[in-house]
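Journal club side-thread
Mid-discussion, someone asked how the predicted structure for our own chain would compare to the paper's figures. Pasting it here so we can look after the session.
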Amino acid sequence: MKKKWMVSFSAMALLAGGALAGCSSDNGGGDSSSGDEGSKTEITLAGWGGNPTEQDLLQQTLDDFEEQNPDIDVKLEVIADQYMDVMKTRLIGGEGPDVFYLDAFEAPALIETGVLEPLDDYVTEEFDVEDFETPLLEAFQQDGVTYGFPKDYSTLALFYNKTMFEEAGVEVPTTWEEMMEVSEALTGDGVYGYGVAPELARQYFVAESLGGSVVEDNMANFGSDEVIEALQPIIDQHNVAKTSAQPSEVGASSGGDMFGQQRAAMVLEGNWNIPYLEETFPELEYGTAEVPTINGEKGTMAFTVSYVMNAASEKKEASWKLIEYLTGKEGMETWTSKGFALPTRKSVAEKLGYADDELRGSLVAGAEYATVWSNGTNLPIITNNFNNQFVSAFLGDRPLDEALKEAEEQANSEIEANN
């Protein structure tokens, strides 16, 4: 996503917003609905698809909502491909849904356009905002205003092969240095100690572990000495110690696949990896642990999605009722009950037992200190440039410092060109 789209988006959104202002309800106001008095209000919910179990869980949650709100019908729209491109086009054209999914990665740029409805004035004390994991909620806030409530999330945890660990006679590492040492004992016969994803979405918290900042004042800063020093061990483990590999180097499609094929003894993966392994590699003996500490500090990534309201919706009251239910305790419990997604509310995670779950407990523990995958409107540009050059260093084609300094310069050049 280039920042240039935001300029045209903002201008077109203002035009669309002006055309719709006359028929949109005021903040928290009554809904408009066609037909005779007493007819139902139909609202549209848009999101991307999931596996059949997830789709069934969502439909069950929506059915429960409609049963409790018989005056509201929810029309679910599943956008299978190019979700954000489709959503931006529809919002610009004044044809956006009333409520829709928004990834934290995309949130800052979309908030800036003004197309999202601020939600704070709708919130009641019973909604219990303090129940949300703070870092996940803050991903959808700007200047103290809340534009979305997170529906689910995943952090990263250390997945480790119990059989390989037992055979090698090593313990589960608790520090990054221990993980490097353990990787040596676990590497051999086509198996790597550590399966790594050389991309910013997975390495962001590592990059900032020595006090550096990947993004500073909405500009790329990953060429700084602190960031380079923090990331150098990732490069050295692959090119010098040769105890790590990325999935493509062993013919795997992902970190989870590499781990499931037992080509890596350890990987950092999210909650999505648990049902995947259960279905695809049911005989695999594995465990999870919190991500090993770096420089004495805990760290991990968090990926989260919220429900947001279209500021141009004509049915704000009904739209808020839907968001309130879906991200409330009852609706969230239904949605996350099978473990495909983790609840962003602490009380729901506790009620469902995820904090004490043998596999998911490590993921839940990371929520309070995780770095959320979201930082400013230019993160997509920054990410693209980082990934292009970090991979070249990971593969040994050029020194890390040279690669990242060049990538930072290119990223900031693109950002300035799009301002």
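Post-session note: The mean pLDDT is 92.
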